[in-house]
Design a protein that fits this description.
With 666 residues, the protein is mainly α. It contains 28 helices and no strands. The longest helix has 43 residues. The radius of gyration is 28 Å and the shape is globular.
Length: 666
């Protein structure tokens, strides 16, 4: 008996024909390659021509006009009704509120040489509030954190930062919660407010500073307004989402019982969305803390001032100590607000006795009152004692360790810096910044169209026109080059670590807490290890940006790869695919939309941090913003740089968002 081969006696199955989507994708790739090739050829032929490079001291007509606007605004403060009574009234109220709280908790209240409530009273009140809102563990954490501020030598600066953050968050709640409620009930309001929130979240932090200084000047009022605008969107978005997510069945049942709209909100929606709203409050608080530190550049009080001074003098030790206080504060606020959202469920699980809780609250309340009295009566309880001083020995130890690291690994980090700078950053920056402006603009528009489709053409062209009009095209291209190089490094790190975490529960359990901790840190903190390792250079700014942006990219990649169907992965493995083949041929292609989303978030985080890195050698647009604050005659150019940063951020966001949407549909 003759055995037939598996294919004998039947027609061989033809390979499936490529789909329209696949053919369209292939055409886009070929077109993209063509655009890049034409760009390189054009750069080689026209290098250095019409690239609109502008010296730092040179100003355009726009820059001089903006400086003249600043002068006219300052001259009109007492004559113009809006500036005097509206802007001036808001500024005076905020300045007065912050100064009142400072005299109450942190600064001498004339004629007293000390605050109205000294350090002991402040710690006791903070512990009482923490226990009331979040329980015993958070009360202990708050006590330890507050004492650490004083022991490290930054008591007044820490309380000042808490005051600015608290005032900004309080105003965010007053504005954001009603706006979130309104959005949850009105699609029209959502359609109008959402683009505004998009722009507010897309703008890098530095871009807020110059325009607000124009109206509010420098000082606490400008710091609070800047922090408020930056921190408001998370609370609005998340509270609207939480209220909108309440079960329609529950709402219908309550309405059928005769509840009014106000009763429905107060008795059903807000209680059921409480946890989500507090999550929004947590995000707003962390954003406010982040921005309040940066507001030190416009004379905002708090820990940002010693960090900026230490970074500018390259004192890694002092920067590390003040940065450590910011880290402690970030952890304290994050854990307090997060635990507060779970307070009810934790109490139910642990079967907390309400009588015991009320008794403890009463005892803590009495102790807090006694502590306040002691801090008002005795100087030693009003001024934080100078001994023991843990800050200076720690700063000296950090400086010694930093010196050892530089002596030991300086050659390695220098080689790595030279490798990335000479092999990637310098050629890429030359390609972007030394191409003729019209060629570079055409390339960016073509790439945007090929990646994201026709919907992104209008915002791309408008943003490029704004950058061109700012007179800072060349500096914007240098900033774009640093941003894209940083994003590339973030995505390499994100894919490697993200795939590892997605494929290993052990790795995920070990790494995710570290990523969570890194995401609570304000941007200034990332500059400290970067400057210790790489010195004050633009590459240091890029590495700080990589550290800042990597956690969010890693998490998105992890979740995207893990979301790939296990059945598909098992089928690939059953067909004989190796681990490498499964990752590269199955998991990463099927998680493509998550990769694009990670690139979107990475771009925005990197751009924000690259600009901040101008404090210690980053250069380009960020340096112009800082120079505008440092030198009054450069204010117009700094304001134009802030506008260019915003346009760059919006353009990158729109391109990556629409690219992610296109891949999601595919």
């Amino acid at each position: 008996m003759t055995l037939l081969s598996p294919t004998r006696g039947r027609r061989a199955t033809p390979s499936p024909a490529p789909t329209d989507a696949q053919e369209s994708g292939q055409r886009r790739v070929l077109a993209l390659v063509g655009v890049l090739a034409a760009w390189v050829v054009g750069w080689a032929l026209l290098k250095g021509r019409q690239n609109l490079e502008l010296a730092v001291s040179t100003q355009t007509d726009l820059h001089r006009w903006l400086l003249d606007v600043r002068d006219r605004v300052e001259a009109a403060r007492t004559d113009n009704f809006f500036l005097d009574y509206v802007v001036g009234g808001v500024s005076s109220a905020l300045d007065g509120g912050v100064e009142f709280l400072q005299q109450l908790f942190s600064q001498p209240a004339f004629p007293r040489p000390v605050p109205e409530i000294g350090w002991l009273g402040v710690v006791a009140l903070a512990v009482f509030v923490a226990y009331a809102l979040a329980g015993a563990r958070i009360a202990v954490l708050v006590a330890v954190s507050m004492l650490a501020f004083g022991l490290l030598g930054y008591w007044e600066e820490s309380i000042d930062l808490l005051i600015v953050t608290g005032v900004a968050v309080g105003i965010c709640v007053l504005i954001g919660l009603p706006l979130g409620i309104w959005m949850s009930r009105s699609d029209r309001t959502t359609a109008v407010v959402t683009p505004v929130l998009d722009v507010m979240q897309t703008m890098p932090a530095f871009a807020y500073l110059a325009p607000l200084v124009l109206f509010f000047g420098i000082g606490p009022a400008s710091a609070v307004v800047t922090t408020l605008i930056y921190a408001l969107p998370p609370l609005v978005r998340i509270s609207a989402h939480g209220l909108r997510s309440v079960s329609p069945t529950t709402l219908e049942a309550t309405t059928s019982l005769g509840s009014t709209s106000r009763q429905l909100l107060a008795k059903v929606q807000l209680p059921m969305a409480r946890r989500t709203v507090i999550v929004g409050l947590n995000q707003t608080t962390m954003a406010a803390l982040s921005m309040a530190t940066i507001a030190a550049l416009i004379d905002g009080p708090g820990l940002g001032e010693p960090v900026v001074q230490a970074l500018q003098s390259l004192d890694v030790g002092d920067a590390s100590v003040s940065g450590l206080c910011i880290v402690i504060m970030a952890i304290m606020l994050d854990r307090a607000t997060t635990t507060a959202s779970d307070r009810a469920s934790v109490a139910a699980r642990t079967r907390e006795n309400p009588r015991v809780r009320r008794a403890v609250l009463a005892v803590l309340g009495v102790l807090a009152l006694v502590a306040v009295w002691l801090s008002r009566t005795y100087t030693r309880f009003a001024e934080f004692p100078e001994d023991p001083d843990l800050g200076q020995p720690l700063a000296d130890a950090v400086n010694s360790f930093s010196g050892w690291v530089i002596d030991t690994f300086g050659g390695l980090t220098a080689r790595f810096t030279d490798l990335i700078s000479n092999g990637l950053l310098n050629p890429f920056e030359s390609l972007l910044a030394e191409s003729p402006w019209w060629l570079m603009a055409a390339v960016l528009v073509a790439i945007a169209y090929l990646l994201a489709g026709p919907r992104v053409l209008a915002p791309t062209v408008i943003c490029l026109a704004i950058i061109l009009g700012s007179g800072l095209w060349n500096d914007a291209m240098k900033t774009l080059a640093m941003t894209l190089v940083g994003t590339l490094l973030v995505m390499v790190l994100g894919v490697v670590v993200g795939v590892w975490m997605a494929r290993s529960r052990t790795a995920d359990a070990a790494i995710r807490p570290l990523l969570d901790a890194l995401q609570t840190l304000p941007p200034f903190v990332y500059l400290i290890p970067a400057i210790a390792l790489f010195g004050p250079t633009r590459f240091m700014a890029i590495m700080a940006a990589v550290l800042y942006a990597a956690p969010v990219a890693i998490k998105i990649v992890t979740d995207g790869v893990r979301a790939v169907s296990p059945t598909t992965v098992e089928a690939a493995q059953a067909a004989g695919s190796s681990s490498w083949q499964t990752i590269t041929k199955v998991q990463l292609p099927m998680a493509r939309s998550a990769l694009v989303l990670a690139a979107n978030q990475g771009l925005l985080f990197v751009l924000s941090m690259v600009v901040i890195g101008a404090l210690v050698g980053g250069g380009a647009l960020g340096f112009l913003v800082i120079n505008g604050f440092a030198q009054g005659e450069a204010f117009g150019k700094g304001l134009a740089a802030g506008v260019a940063i915003t346009a760059l951020g919006v353009m990158l966001d729109r391109i990556t968002v629409h690219t992610a949407a296109r891949h999601g549909r595919a």
